[in-house]
Amino acid sequence: MSTxxxxxxxxxxxxxxxxAAFRSLKETFKEHFYYYVFVFDExxxxxxxxxxxxxxxxxxxEQQITDEEKSWWKWDCSDSPYVVYGYDKFFCEVSDLLDKRxxxxxxxxxxxxxxxxxxxLLEEAMxxxxxxxxxxxxxxxxxxxxxxxxxxxNGSEYDRALRLNPPSALLxxxxxxxxxxxxx
Length: 184
Known about the structure:
Blueprint: H1 4-29, E1 33-40, E2 47-52, H2 53-62, H3 67-73, H4 87-90, H5 92-102, H6 107-131, H7 138-141, E3 145-150, H8 156-164, H9 169-177
Helix pairs in contact: 1-5, 1-6
């Protein structure tokens, strides 16, 4: 099993990779981003996704998204044109660390204990990125949503969003599209 030191090393790698990817995204596209997430799926290697208002409007037209679909499309990380942005460039260290961790685990351990550990470490990484001011500060920060989303969604995104974001109208809008666990 992973030690506290191993976990901290992985959080630091997540922070470094995501910081570089999100900064590159903002500098390259010069758009108004409102949504930044880590996505974690059965591949067990997280990647980023993001949406800007400019990309959203373009996507709605190109994909012929109906008015009824717009509210969830705005938050659909897998349909963003920026999904997996910068993975090959910025996530090499992360990939190596995750492969090393996986090599000593059984399949059951990997998809049960390690899955939850990785999601928790990703949340910690997003929290640190937020504390660094990457997503804005003060009133500006209320115009941005950050999260760690699992694919397929399992309802945990709702609670994570509450922990990672300040109260705002945008957060309320986002939460409307999140699945919730049965306990909520």
